[in-house]
Amino acid sequence: MSGPAHPEGAVREPVRVLIVDDHPVVRRGLRAMVDELPDVEAVGEAGDGAEALRLLDAGTRPDVVLMDLQMGAGMHGVEATRRITALPDPPAVLILTTYSTDADILAAVEAGATGYLLKDAPPEDVAAAVQASARGETVLAPPVAARLLGRVRSGRPALSPRETEILGLLAEGLANKQISRRLFISEATVKTHLVHIYGKLGVDSRTAAIAAGLAGGLIRPV
Questions:
Q1: What is the full DSSP assignment across 42-85?
Q2: Which of 46, 66, 150, 220 is deepest in the core (most CB within 10 A)?
Q3: Would you say residue 81 has pLDDT above 90?
Q4: How far apart are CA 149 and CA 143, in angstroms?
């Protein structure tokens, strides 16, 4: 969905941005910021991932989706990123969030996000990241890049995005049946993921898995 190339001297079209965040006040603030950026314009807003997908299906054509991660009861940012990047000719997805745990960063990057910024980034950094994402470049905030590098060097167990998601639901106290319903997968699949999680973390119980996940920064305290 990237804008067409223009011959030298032609007027460059602005980068089109779709803003996805569950807080209306935050969305308004992001839209105001985006509209003030040079060569960038907001073309829509969504309160969660499902609404963003509906807008894309209805014909909204952004070059970049500014995506929050945790969005209340709605579809969260990682799942939305995974679905958006699986579309034909998808827009770039640039994560803009307050969350910077290893699990969040890895899940977003593995889902296909081209960039990961924190919401305290100055507007000029957001502007540069939006333009870079529209060009297909990878953009990571310095703290995020440092965490990824540290994780690679630490040798911590690498859970898949789905395994990380299930571990997080365990920490929320959900039983296998509740997890299967939440994720629309079978209980047998949940059990298989748990076996893999336990093996990677070197534990043999739900409680130990949660403790290991919290200690390793794979999940956040509930």
A1: EEEEESSHHHHHHHHHTT---SEEEE-S--TTS--HHHHHHHHH
A2: 66
A3: yes
A4: 10
